[in-house]
Design brief:
alpha+beta; 6-stranded antiparallel beta sheet; 10 helices; 13 strands; elongated; kinase; phosphorelay sensor kinase activity; EC 2.7.13.3; two-component regulatory system
Length: 405
């Protein structure tokens, strides 16, 4: 057998070998090809203008060529098929009018030979599917060629599928790496903003103790309001980072007997901040509740603010909070409707679309609310349609005392 010197293979051919190796059907295809041709050696070969390389082999002949093995390109009939992509088949070379004097059968001691081209789906030539034997064979040439062409087409289609899969994996990995870096950047940014923000807040408090004009008082109020808004944004960013990079938003679970009063304060604060004085609240929390009251207040504030900003302005917002032995159920309803195609991603971060009207905030409120619900071993769901409006439901089971630590 005239193997070529072990010339280094290029990265592209190595990748081609790996792609064929990843096709689980190839070994069965080669075994079937050997069976229908009566040959004891079958192979998938990558054929270029400089290389003949075995990508997969089936060998009971003792031909001695394994995966990655090379033949001298010019010594093969596959090189002729590369130049003029047509099947070649003969069952008895020494009696064939053309191949009796051909150099390939004489060089490799071949009597029977079948080879068909393999094309990628884009039409480019990949190589050949071939079968050889040192003994003559009797077969229906037309039927064998049709069968091998079908197998070659399957291999070509598998190649494209594998390429697309590998590309998708690479794209997904790159996107994931980018997402992790982005989330880490956001976490560092949020953390580093806290120090200058605290310094600005302290400076503002000190300035408020100093004598100032009416205009100065007005400017200080604007500064204080801006710092409050920035502080809220930074907290949202840090909560987002904790949810994405850590184990979720942390909660400090304690038995709190003043949850109802704290939640009612949230109602008044949101009403004042949004100008919505039509929030109808029913809060029935009669017993101490095992929860993180500050986080529940944040969840409620996010839901009420969302209802105030996105709900119908001419219909009231209703809040209903009830507790029993099974836990707590909190419902916020507004008269607006959410488009069906947005419901599925409503609790994902930055879900606001570019086409949406510009609004304050980062679009993290509902995501953070869902993370707070999860941290309480609860769920946050939404249902919405034009006839009934939009209802957010937070359901928190009664948390066992063992989880309070």
């Amino acid at each position: 057998m005239q193997q070529s010197a072990a010339a280094p293979l290029g990265a592209d051919i190595i990748q081609d070998i790996a792609e064929i190796g990843a096709i689980t059907a190839v070994p069965r295809i080669l075994e079937t090809v050997a069976h229908i041709t009566g040959s004891r050696f079958a192979a998938v070969a990558r054929v270029t203008d400089s290389h003949w390389v075995a990508c997969a082999t089936y060998d009971t002949l003792g031909f001695g060529l394994g995966v990655g093995g090379q033949l001298v390109l010019e010594s093969t009939i596959c090189n002729e098929i590369r130049q003029a992509p047509q099947p070649v088949i003969f069952g008895h070379a020494s009696q064939h009018p053309h191949y009796a004097s051909h150099h390939t059968p004489r060089l490799y001691g071949l009597e029977s030979y079948v080879s068909v081209p393999i094309f990628r789906p884009d039409g480019s030539f990949f190589g050949t599917l071939c079968a050889i034997d040192s003994a003559p064979a009797t077969f229906d040439e037309a039927q064998v060629v049709r069968s091998l062409e079908l197998f070659a087409e399957l291999i070509g289609n598998y190649l494209q599928t594998e390429q697309r899969l590998q590309q998708a994996i690479a794209d997904l990995s790159a996107a994931n790496d980018t997402a992790v870096l982005r989330d880490q950047f956001i976490a560092v940014l949020g953390h580093d903003l806290r120090s200058p923000l605290q310094a600005a807040s302290m400076a503002t408090e000190m300035l408020e103790l100093e004598p100032h004009t009416e205009r100065g008082s007005m400017l200080l109020t604007r500064v204080r309001d801006s710092i409050t808004r920035i502080d809220g944004l930074v907290k949202d960013v840090l909560d987002f980072a904790r949810g994405r990079l850590g184990g979720g938003i942390p909660v400090a679970l304690t038995y709190d007997a003043n949850v109802a009063a704290q939640l009612m304060r949230v109602v008044h604060e949101v009403a004042g901040a949004t100008g919505r004085n039509d929030i109808i609240a029913t809060i029935a929390v009669d017993a101490p509740l095992l929860c993180d009251a500050n986080r529940l207040s944040q969840l409620l504030a996010n839901l009420l603010t969302n209802a105030a900003v996105h709900g119908a302005a001419d219909q009231p917002i209703t809040l209903d909070i009830q507790t029993d032995a099974n836990g707590l159920v909190l419902q916020v309803h507004n008269g607006g409707a959410i488009a069906p195609d947005k419901l599925g991603r409503l609790f994902t971060p930055f879900s606001r679309e570019a086409s949406d009207q510009p609004r304050p905030g980062l679009g993290l409120g509902l995501y953070i609310a869902a993370e707070i619900a999860k941290a309480h071993n609860g769920t946050l769901s939404v249902e919405s349609d034009a006839a009934h409006g939009t209802r957010f439901v937070f359901a928190m089971p009664a948390i066992p005392l063992a989880l309070a630590g």
